[in-house]
Fold this sequence. Notes:
single chain, alpha+beta, four-stranded antiparallel sheet, 6 helices, 20% strand, elongated, DUF3027 domain-containing protein, DUF3027
Amino acid sequence: MRTLARAKADSAVVNAIDVARAALLEDVDTADVGEHLGHEIEGERLVTHLFACERRGYAGWRWSVTVTRASRQKAVTVDEIVLVPGAEAIVAPSWVPYRERIKPGDLSPGDLLPVDDDDPRLVPTYSFGDDPLDQDAKAQVRHVARDLGLGRSRTLSPEGRELAAQRWYEGTGGPSAPIAQSAPDKCTTCGFLMRLNGPLAELFGVCANGDANDDGRVVSLDHGCGAHSEVRLAKKHEPQPLPEPLVDDLASDNYEGF
């Protein structure tokens, strides 16, 4: 196996700081160019000189000037000049596709969010074997499912169910929610808890307390809130009874003839 030797620093291009700065100032205002920050060896007789960028709004950015020297030539020439971010530069975040940026609550009335045919969260309602289905076969699955009265051509897969369970458990209806941390008891002992059927029945239920923040929402059995069905106030916190009303017997309307 052939190993390429590491490029050696060429003194002519390494010392060509003034050449690099002069070329930079032809395109950039003097006030935007700061001190020389060093150089990087790109290859044989190829060096990039870095200068601080003083332009407003570009803190941490650097001017990059790449210079080179042809073989057996003394003159140094400039290859390119670019503005590059440094380690502390403020840069735009990495691009995230629109589909992955959508969060619960982002959809407005009339918005459509189609699900891919190969979404791992969904599987055909009944098994069609392990062979992958092409587009025509997928259409047949949906058609046959409707003919058999199954209602849905696809249903939640084990992976989709696990993702939902993790999302619910770590969300506002799980045990780590602030309201659950200060609750007097757990949802599992609350009379307002409606049990679920299926694989998630041992972990989750639905809150049916109209006075609770989680009314109509999925909650974990170890979630909780102050609206628990068995909550009782301490006597010192109970409403104090009103005193007996007083009747003024000396009022003039209590005497006839006056």
